[in-house]
Design a protein that fits this description.
By secondary structure, the protein is of the alpha/beta class. It is about 25% helix and about 35% strand. The chain has an 11-stranded mixed β-sheet with strand order 12-7-8-6-3-13-14-2-15-1-19, with helices on both faces. It starts with a helix and ends with a strand. The protein binds S-adenosylmethionine (SAM).
């Protein structure tokens, strides 16, 4: 019954989705986005790139609006690789977790990251994806390819949509990412893999074969002529071109990579994808960025990147990861005006100071953070904890703070940052900035709380 219904719906999804995508492609830009700020991570290794040349951008918005903006900004046909990891139709609401200081202890609070619940189930889900996939194809270069990361719930239906948009001839692989962690079932085989569909745009696509180990049987070298053999603790092996089954560990509880964003993908997985299907200086895009794994790995591999995610938690998680990684300067793009619902940070004092070497600097004393908890999707115990912290120790709720110490009234260039991390769960209330020559009298302070709510203040000295 249900299967028939979906089969009946597919032609409609394709026809209406194509019409919608074509009208978006051809209309005047509906919701223009703005560059809100440029983040220039501290400790960045030299001036590898001037701010004017940078491409790397995080769009904090729905990806349909993002893609429309990119088409208008001249990105049509310029992106070599798109990786997407959309929601999987799990009927779940996903969370992020933060350790926050509570009196002299630490508490873990959980709060909303993103929803994967769909009113009309699979049909709604496929409608959402079809229009976006159709428009992503426009952004791909002629050498480009796209990886669509799914699982058993939707892959067979999305394959049909992809065949329609990209052509069956351009279907290159269904990659099986196999892993071990997670639960097990007594009623069916344990589900321990995801499916990644790989399509190219044309036949002239970038593909750099990656090598993997292939172990010889019987722990002996084969000694084939001209074939190099190696040995490790598991036996003798040769290096062969990688297969389409990829055993890669998930980001587990104890993993160093872990940023406590549900559904975070391992860097190793992205590394293989980016190395295989892009070159240095290629633009790599991810329109369901989550914790920002694609941008982090693209950056490490000298690619340029564009990411989008509509979630507030995704934005703050990604910014912190990029700053920690000392990434090249990147822009935050959005169309929303600052919300008056966001929390407010009071500043107790700002002054110019001189250190013992005679260097001029700035000293800023932070006051309290005033948060309206009713604006946040947080329940139960975590809510009580946050209310108490808000009254007694409110700075513990600030996740990221960034400063443009020479603010010129234009787009802030955030060249100083502090943020909560595993070994420092509260930012300092006194900020000293000595490493930038101070030219003017205006300072811009941007702050984001642990829920991803952001705000900014201009100070005059
Ligand atoms: C499965 S997660 C991605 C995880 C990511 N690969 C990582 O390594 O962290 C899916 C993400 O898509 C975002 N998302 C869902 N629908 C979206 C939309 N229409 N526009 C932008 N982002 C969306 C969610 O906020 C969520 O962060």
């Amino acid at each position: 019954m249900v299967a028939n219904y979906i089969v009946d719906e597919l032609p409609r999804i394709i026809e209406n989705g194509t019409k919608k995508a074509e009208s978006i492609k051809n209309r005047h830009l509906n919701m223009p986005m703005r560059e809100r700020e440029i983040i220039q991570p501290m400790g960045l290794n030299g001036d590898k790139i001037s701010i004017g040349e940078r491409i790397n951008r995080f769009y904090n918005a729905d990806n349909l609006v993002t893609i429309e903006n990119l088409l208008h900004e001249g990105y049509r046909g310029r992106i070599d690789l798109i990786y997407i990891d959309p929601p999987f139709l799990t009927k779940t609401s996903y969370k992020g977790r933060s350790k926050v200081r509570y009196k002299d202890t630490e508490r873990v609070v959980e709060y909303f990251a993103y929803d994967d619940r769909w009113e009309d189930g699979l049909i709604d889900y496929l409608k959402m994806l079809y229009t976006r996939l159709y428009l992503m194809r426009e952004l791909l270069s002629d050498k480009g390819s796209i990886y669509v990361h799914l699982d058993y719930r939707t892959v067979h239906y999305v394959k049909i949509l992809m065949d329609q948009i990209f052509g069956r001839d351009n279907f290159l692989n269904e990659i099986i990412w196999s892993y071990k962690s997670g639960g097990a079932s007594r009623r069916y085989f344990s589900r321990k893999h995801d499916n990644i569909l790989l399509y190219s745009k044309t036949k002239n696509y970038i593909f750099n074969p990656q090598k993997e180990k292939s172990y010889n049987r019987d722990f002996k070298p084969y000694r084939f002529k001209g074939v190099e053999e190696y040995k490790d603790e598991f036996g003798w092996y040769t290096l062969v071109n990688a297969r389409d089954v990829w055993p890669i560990d998930m980001v587990g509880r104890t993993s160093k990579e872990r940023v406590d964003y549900d559904t975070q993908k391992p860097e190793k997985l992205l590394e293989r994808i980016i190395l295989s299907s892009s070159n240095e200086d290629s633009i790599v895009a991810d329109f369901f960025a989550g914790s920002g794994t694609t941008g982090i790995v693209a950056e490490k591999l000298n690619r340029r990147w564009i990411m989008a995610d509509k979630g507030a938690l995704s934005k703050v998680t990604t910014i912190k990861r990029l700053v920690e990684n000392k990434s090249l300067p990147f822009s935050i793009m959005s169309y929303k005006e600052e919300s008056d619902k966001a929390g407010r940070l009071s500043i107790d004092n700002v002054e110019k100071v001189v250190d013992n070497k005679g260097q001029e600097g700035l000293r800023i004393e932070l006051g309290d953070y005033h948060l309206n908890i009713n604006n946040i999707d947080i329940r139960g115990k975590s809510r009580n904890t946050i209310e108490k912290i808000g009254k007694n120790d409110s700075l513990a709720l600030i996740d990221f703070i960034g400063i443009d110490a020479n603010y010129d009234g234009g787009i802030p260039i955030i060249g100083w940052q502090d943020y909560r991390r595993a070994n420092k769960i509260v930012i300092d209330s006194q900020i000293n900035i000595f490493n930038k020559g101070l030219k003017g009298n205006n300072i811009y302070i941007k702050y984001i709380d642990i829920f991803g709510q952001e705000n900014g203040t201009i100070l005059h000295i």
